[in-house]
Design a protein that fits this description.
The structure holds two protein chains of two kinds. In chain A, helix 8 packs across helix 9. Chain A starts with 6 loop residues before the first strand and ends with a helix. In chain A, helix 1 links the parallel strand 1 and strand 2. Chain A is α/β, with parallel strands linked by helices. Among the domains of chain A are: 181 residues, FAD/NAD(P)-binding domain; 106 residues, no CATH class. Chain A contains 17 helices and 20 strands. The longest helix of chain A has 20 residues. The radius of gyration of chain A is 22 Å and the shape is globular. In chain A, the strands form five sheets. Chain A has an eight-stranded mixed sheet with strand order 8-7-6-16-17-18-15-19, sandwiched between helices. Chain A has a five-stranded parallel sheet with strand order 10-2-1-14-20, covered by helices on one side. A three-stranded antiparallel sheet of chain A has the order 11-12-13, covered by helices on one side. Chain B is α+β, with helices and mostly antiparallel strands. Chain B has three domains: 141 residues, Probable tRNA modification gtpase trme, domain 1 (Gyrase A, domain 2); 83 residues, Alpha-Beta Plaits; 84 residues, Beta Barrel (Elongation Factor Tu (Ef-tu), domain 3), CATH 2.40.30. In chain B, the strands form four sheets. A six-stranded mixed sheet of chain B has the order 10-11-12-9-3-13. A six-stranded antiparallel beta barrel of chain B has the order 14-17-16-15-18-19. In chain B, strands 5-6-7-4-8 form a five-stranded antiparallel sheet. In chain B, helix 2 crosses helix 7. Classes of the chains: A alpha/beta, B alpha+beta. At the A-B interface, helix 12 of A face helix 3 and helix 8 of B.
């Protein structure tokens, strides 16, 4: 290296780019090292059969916060959140249910549910808003609490007590740690509606609707809605990672692609650089890892340089990936039973009831998969016709629950599972099968191999209560700094967790700058 | 193969030496050590004490927790485990070690025997299997609990060299303190280390459990010519305090069994800073200990001599007579050989320094009547009792 590097960021996923850009804008000399040959991590574009382009593994997202948009000038670099989409809970007989931000509509919607839905939504968005100070800041230390952490807790307490009011506060405290199954059964009658909300609560986690803590995962998800409506990733220049990459480069971040970090170099308890596959060593004052904490601490640093209890906690981080990805190249537009033509660009869900979701989850607990998986479907080509040849389409499907370790191994069963998923899709869209030009199926194992997310877990570790807030990713590294001096974490494994929010990256950058350990 | 699980029928295990020890026990004063049945006193405490200090005392060491550490990364593993720099340890040598948790608080102390290349034994006060296994992640190392598979005797006292030689163990003359030799007792293979917990000349003899009685008998066969006594834990408690040796779990709380914040202790706080090498590379607790080293010490387990001859027992320590309470006595004994009240006391430091005017305030009984007394205390750094004959090689022949 010719010039002095202040910070090396491992991984040019969106959180890595956010963190890198914040640091570069603060005047640091930043290099971002990415193992893949494009930036963007799980939201980097992918292509199959030459002409069919997919925006990435991420399908649907909320806009990033206005703070990040402003700080990183993302709008100037082309960032435009996509058009708002509804979620359509598909029904095999075509009795589909449209779920919007304010209302639900469709065949035989119970009146009680139609009335309860907007009330329920408003209340949960209020809850999410009350929790905002917690998401926007580093999680407070409980022991020897510095002033900034006290301020976070004060704001949180104020929001919960005064912002929500007494009744709502009681309700939040009642539901915060329980399961979404009970809450939805208390609130709604319609199985399609309950199945769809439950699917949102569990997607990406090894949890079923009856798992305690699934109200919290849902709150964490809809927290993004405070920034704007849900939209589909559709690739191109308006996409978040594209703008982030531009913003990073504009800020002076050097992004080095196709360079895999093999080891974080540590001397006398201090990180001082990285070693790449091939042996090249890069030195920096600070190393920031956007990789899964289990990978960062468990392998790139390694247990030998960590204390026994901490290394043991790293090894115990829970995060089995349970979502596979099916990308389909289609020779035409698939028709779904009962779905109006103009709605196929919406987000489509196959999760017809909470029992269906829970049953699908059961299989994954034992290393098996269900013949009736939970499917989250998007057709990005409905939003960006450039993704596929004229008249052709691309369809992207999140398949829950697919175990990371399949009983009997993946080699022979991967294609079989892909066909099962296609066959299940066929129940809802009879013409789909005949349109398939090519497909790509990524098991959690593949996602681990390609993206370094340990066990293929979307969020680099389960968003369970015992791994949230001041315990995320683990006690001893919950404020983005780690026991290894000058080594920081900035990825989804950190507070506040996964999703295309950029918040872990932003919080980490602020923490690094506050500690002043980079100059 | 059918395993006969009968251990649950007995509250306490019997060591391979038990038959002989039971025959010598006149008091039937038993206690438990690591689930083994062991004597506190066999006959008279004074006889056992003076056997250690002026003859030879034999104690069953089998209950001591023993772990075999082997594998290609054994040394790296131990380096990360213990606070001491063990890079100079060689096969045939023993060293004293401590290990800490992440917070730099003591989990236990013990002795590390290097038996061969990549082959070690750790002897510990407390059960450590879970900690040793947890620490093994990322290392090519095998950790095996071998407490029940290795029988051991401590043979301690000024005449112990002569006793063991007469008992048929040849080749002890070259064995230096903290050395290990593979030898024979008659035709029984034994491993002898020049180690012990008495502060006197002494050896530890390691053997197969099946050879235990034969080795015992060989040692006790010299009894007519030498003063050889079996000893119990009570005599050991006296001599180990004289030698200034500390007992984890008794003189301080071990980290993994401490509930209250601040009730555990770091090596510096118990006077074991000399087995901490902060510059040797990473080990568990290093970062915490580095930080602790930059700050004035908070407290120190201190060797004190308490004036007078009244039994001190449990007592508070004060800075000045009627002054501020600054500490507590953790263990104490009357030393017959030094004619002094000895104690180890946990004392708060003031600005990193030991208060200069230490007093013990204690209660004692005179013909059942309780009285209160004050006694001045003198702190000292060196062991109370450390005779020259302890380290002479070859030791004096009797």
């Amino acid at each position: 290296m010719t010039s002095r590097t202040d910070a090396i960021i491992i991984g040019a996923g969106h959180n890595g780019l956010v963190c890198a850009t914040y640091l570069a804008r603060a005047g640091l000399n930043v290099v971002c090292i990415e193992a893949r040959d494009s930036a963007g991590g799980m939201s980097a574009p992918r292509t199959i059969a030459d002409d069919y382009h997919f925006p990435g593994l991420a399908q649907a997202s909320y806009p990033v916060s206005s703070a990040i948009r402003t700080d990183l000038k993302l709008d100037r670099f082309g960032y435009t959140p996509g058009r708002a989409v509804q979620t359509i809970a598909l029904d095999s007989a075509g009795r589909n249910l449209s779920i919007g931000a304010e209302s639900i509509s469709g065949d035989s919607v119970p009146d009680a549910d139609a009335a309860a839905y907007p009330v329920f939504r408003r209340q949960y968005l209020e809850f999410a808003k009350a929790l905002r100070p917690l998401f926007d800041n580093k999680p407070p230390r409980l022991k020897d609490m510095p002033f900034a952490d006290k301020a976070t807790l004060l704001k949180l307490g104020w929001n919960i007590r005064m912002g929500l009011g007494k009744e709502a506060m009681y309700e939040l405290l009642r539901i915060a740690a329980i399961n979404i199954y009970d809450v939805l059964n208390d609130t709604f009658e319609d199985d399609r509606l309950k199945g769809a909300i439950a699917a949102d609560a569990i997607m990406g986690s090894a949890m079923g609707p009856r798992t305690p803590g699934t109200v919290l995962t849902w709150l964490q998800r809809i927290e993004g809605e405070l920034n704007g409506p849900l939209s589909l990733q559709s690739g191109g220049r308006t996409q978040l990672v594209h703008a982030l990459t531009q913003s990073a480069e504009d800020a002076g971040v050097r992004i080095r692609l196709a360079a895999r970090v093999e080891k974080i170099l540590v001397d006398n308890g201090k990180a001082f650089g990285v070693r790449l596959t091939g042996g090249e060593m890069l030195k920096a004052r600070t190393v920031v890892s956007n990789a899964d904490p289990r990978l960062t601490l468990g392998s790139l640093v390694g247990p030998r340089l960590l204390d026994t209890m901490f290394a043991n906690r790293v090894a115990q981080i829970r995060g089995p990936g349970v979502v596979a990805k099916l990308n389909l190249a289609l020779a035409g537009k698939p028709e779904f039973n009962g779905l109006a033509d103009d709605l196929s660009g919406e987000r489509l869900l196959i999760a017809p009831s909470m029992k269906y979701v829970e049953r699908a989850y059961n299989f994954s607990k034992y290393g098996e998969y269900s013949d009736q998986p939970v499917l989250d479907i998007a057709m990005p080509s409905m939003h960006n016709s450039g993704l596929a040849p004229d008249g052709h389409h691309v369809m992207s499907v999140n398949v829950a629950y697919v175990p990371y370790e399949l009983a009997g191994g993946w080699d022979e069963q991967k294609t079989a599972l892909a066909y099962k998923v296609i066959s299940q899709l066929g129940t809802y869209s009879p013409n789909l099968k005949s349109l398939i030009v090519d497909h790509e199926f990524l098991t959690p194992q593949d996602i681990e191999d390609q993206f370094g997310a340990v066990q293929g877990h979307w969020h680099h570790g389960e968003l369970s209560i015992h791994q949230s807030f001041m315990m995320r990713p683990l006690h001893g590294a919950a404020q983005y700094d780690t026991p290894v001096e000058r080594l920081f974490l900035c990825g989804a494994g950190c507070h506040p967790g996964g999703g295309l929010t950029g918040l872990p990256g932003r919080n980490a950058a602020r923490r690094i700058l506050a500690l002043g350990g980079v100059k | 193969m059918i395993f006969e699980h009968t251990h649950f029928r007995q509250a306490l295990q019997l060591s391979p030496f038990h038959e002989r020890i039971a025959a010598l026990s006149k008091t039937e004063n038993w206690t438990s050590w690591n689930t083994y049945k062991v004597p506190r006193v066999l006959d008279k405490l004074s006889t056992e004490y003076f056997a250690i200090r002026s003859g030879t005392a034999v104690m069953d060491l089998t209950p001591m927790e023993k772990y075999r550490i082997s594998g290609g990364d054994a040394q790296e593993y131990l380096d990360r485990l213990v606070a001491r720099d063990i890079s100079n340890l060689r096969p045939g040598r023993v060293t004293y070690i401590v290990w800490c948790n992440d917070d730099g608080k003591l989990i236990d102390d013990g002795t590390l025997f290097q038996l061969g290349d990549n082959d070690y034994r750790i002897c510990a006060q407390h059960h450590q299997l879970d900690w040793l296994l947890m620490s093994a992640a990322g290392f090519d190392v095998q950790v095996e609990l071998e407490t029940d598979n290795v029988a051991a005797l401590a043979v301690q006292g000024p005449t112990s060299y002569s006793v063991l030689s007469e008992a048929g163990i040849a080749g002890l003359e070259h064995l230096k303190p903290f050395g290990i030799h593979d030898l024979h007792c008659g035709d029984i293979p034994v491993t002898v280390s020049r180690t012990g917990f008495t502060g006197d000349l002494g050896y530890e003899v390691w053997m197969q459990p099946s050879d235990a009685l034969a080795v015992w008998d060989a040692i006790f066969a010299v009894q007519g010519r030498y003063d050889v006594h079996a000893m119990g834990l009570d005599a050991l408690e006296m001599v180990r305090i004289e030698a200034g040796f500390i007992m984890p779990g008794f003189d301080f709380n071990t980290a993994e069994s401490t509930v209250r914040d601040g009730y555990d202790r770091s090596p510096y706080e118990v006077g074991l800073g000399w087995v901490v090498n902060l510059d040797k590379g990473h080990f568990t607790g290093r970062k915490a200990l580095q930080l602790e080293k930059t700050q004035p010490g908070k407290r120190r387990l201190t060797k004190i001599v308490v004036d007078g001859n009244k039994p001190v027992g449990e007592a508070f320590i004060y800075n000045g007579k009627n002054g501020k309470q600054v500490g507590e006595i953790r263990c104490t004994t009357w030393s017959p050989i030094l004619k002094a009240n000895l104690a180890l006391a946990d004392i708060d430091l003031v600005n990193g320094k030991l208060p200069s005017d230490l007093w013990a305030r204690f209660d004692y009984q005179r013909e059942l009547k309780w009285r209160t007394a004050w006694a001045a205390c003198r702190a000292q750094a060196k062991p109370f009792y450390n005779p020259e004959h302890r380290s002479a090689t070859p030791p004096a022949r009797f």
